[in-house]
Amino acid sequence: MKIRSVFDGVELRTEFQKIGIDSKFVPIIWKHLFLTLRDSNWEEEWEKHVPSLPSSAYSFLRSNFKTPLSSTLHSVFHSSDNLTSKLLIKLHNGAFVEAVIMRYDTRLGKYGGKPRPGGLRATLCISSQVGCKMGCKFCATGSMGFKSNLSSGEIVEQLVHASSFAQIRNVVFMGMGEPLNNYSAVVESIRIMTGSPFQLSLKRITVSTVGIIHAINKLHNDVPGLNLAVSLHAPAQDIRCQIMPAARAFPLEKLMNSLQEYQRKSLQKILIEYIMLDGVNDEEQHAHLLGKLLETFEVVVNLIPFNSIGTLSQFKSTSEQKVSNFQKILRGTYNIRTTVRKQMGEDISGACGQLVVNLPDKSLGNANPLTDIEDLLKSIEIRSRSQYALDEAQVRNENP
């Protein structure tokens, strides 16, 4: 298999073993490249930037990689408040993907009526595919269709590029594509991100899926401790199929059974993503259906304001009052922790569902930012009912 990126870990180790190079040198190469690429421009001297390798390793690297990264940073767009940055990344084959950096200051929030501890942190939303085959009607990415899967190295390179702009603390697979349709590459990229030199915690990585049942069934065994988010978006199968055509292949009853088993094994809460579409899935009866569907689960429901995607969309945004009522039903009647996603980067088309590469005029959209993902992830582990009540009190303070 041809290596696309020096961060394609499995392939690089395999090639090293073929020519008698110890695979222990792979993370050493990554460490030096990560520091070099973040802090300075690359010069075509592998020996200068990655010292103390066997001569055969240098020969292999020079022969296979003219530059250390297979992708290049094409453009960067910053939101007016400078909290969101959108990176347009050009792949080796000329295709484009986008990644979004979202910056937060935890001290601006409240906990128990007092400023919360902490400081600045950044979450990176990354893509796993060029385009997407799921065809969700409320998402601009679906209008592109599916183009190709990214390799594990191409996924990791988004983190490398982003690290030049911010110290990334959390990673969410909520950008372009359905991550679990590119299962092997996504799992391998996560393993790379949690190892040297990136050293991200699995507790700070979230994979979002529309509900690929056979992949969910494998996920906990392959990457235990990973956070799972499910793009549910409707409480009934007929509504899901209306707005998410791919849902026909993943019946809601079977999906919920799969999630029940995943939760039993992982002992973690599941993040439920629910986009609010006016007159489609946002009425009181939908809230009650959703509450009954989830009442036996340990979940956090994240209500997502719909973002316009121009002529591509047939939907309208739900009013703030209806969103509030929906949230109150889930919380008050069903005791389900429910948050409303804060939108970031709308002025650079960097908000949820706006991701679509539209060259050459560069009116580019991107990814699915969360309302401070780290705060949601803090509640992922299943707690006692008394602790759950404390969590709910915190949410009410943050979202009065």
Automatic annotation (TrEMBL):
Keywords: 4Fe-4S, Cytoplasm, Iron, Iron-sulfur, Metal-binding, Methyltransferase, S-adenosyl-L-methionine, Transferase. Residues 118-347 form the Radical SAM core domain. It comes from the Eukaryota. CDD domains: Radical_SAM. It is found in: Cytoplasm. Its cofactor is [4Fe-4S] cluster. InterPro entries: Aldolase_TIM (IPR013785), Methyltransferase_A (IPR040072), rRNA_lsu_MTrfase_RlmN/Cfr (IPR004383), rSAM (IPR007197), rSAM_sf (IPR058240). Pfam families: Radical_SAM. Gene3D superfamilies: Aldolase class I (3.20.20.70). One of its GO terms (cellular component) is cytoplasm. GO terms for molecular function: 4 iron, 4 sulfur cluster binding; metal ion binding; RNA methyltransferase activity. GO terms for biological process: rRNA base methylation; tRNA methylation. This is Radical SAM core domain-containing protein. It comes from Trifolium subterraneum. The lineage of its organism: Eukaryota, Viridiplantae, Streptophyta, Embryophyta, Tracheophyta.
